[in-house]
Design the sequence.
């Protein structure tokens, strides 16, 4: 067995902890949840929680990191530069992001609607910045680029939050198509000056 493979029992325990935490968030809120609450809800011993996480804040940080890694995996296209991306590829990327969020809706909705510090939307923005900025190269000295990308990323995260909170009001395909149209053309216009 490879060293990189995680024991199935560890995965099951971490999943049980995550699901217990999300259930508790619905009723108690972050501040009032204790490690003992999580352990009781997950039907594990409190010491088992501590085998996996140092404390509740570290647990939250790991949840945020995991979600960002999943989104970064969605963003990993066969493109060596963001300049090579066409409209179809951009739309496929947006759809993959929304599919990932939809598959983990309880987590995303909980993180975005509960008053948790640090704010989860900041983690979402950082995930998108990491991908987009890596594809652009050195943008730090281009004021227009920096402001434009910050604006687009903030808007994208805002629209994702809107969809998560009010998704029953939207059809996913139409929502993604409209979002792709807006963001792709904005991105192309912004990148024209950086080639």
Sequence:
């Amino acid at each position: 067995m490879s060293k990189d493979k995680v024991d199935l029992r560890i995965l099951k325990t971490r999943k049980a902890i995550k699901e217990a935490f999300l259930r508790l968030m619905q009723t108690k809120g972050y501040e009032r949840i204790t490690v003992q609450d999580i352990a009781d809800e997950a039907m594990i011993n409190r010491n088992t929680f501590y085998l996996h996480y140092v404390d509740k804040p570290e647990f939250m940080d790991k949840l945020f990191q995991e979600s960002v890694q999943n989104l970064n995996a969605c963003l990993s296209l066969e493109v060596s530069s963001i300049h090579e991306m066409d409209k179809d590829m951009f739309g496929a990327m947006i759809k993959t992001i929304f599919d990932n969020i939809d598959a983990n809706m309880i987590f995303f909705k909980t993180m975005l609607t509960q008053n948790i510090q640090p704010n989860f939307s900041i983690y979402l923005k950082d995930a998108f910045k990491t991908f987009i900025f890596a594809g652009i190269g050195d943008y730090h000295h281009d004021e227009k680029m920096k402001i434009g990308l910050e604006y687009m990323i903030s808007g994208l995260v805002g629209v994702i939050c809107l969809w998560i909170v009010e998704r029953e009001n939207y059809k996913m395909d139409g929502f993604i198509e409209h979002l792709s149209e807006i963001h792709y053309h904005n991105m192309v216009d912004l990148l024209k000056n950086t080639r």
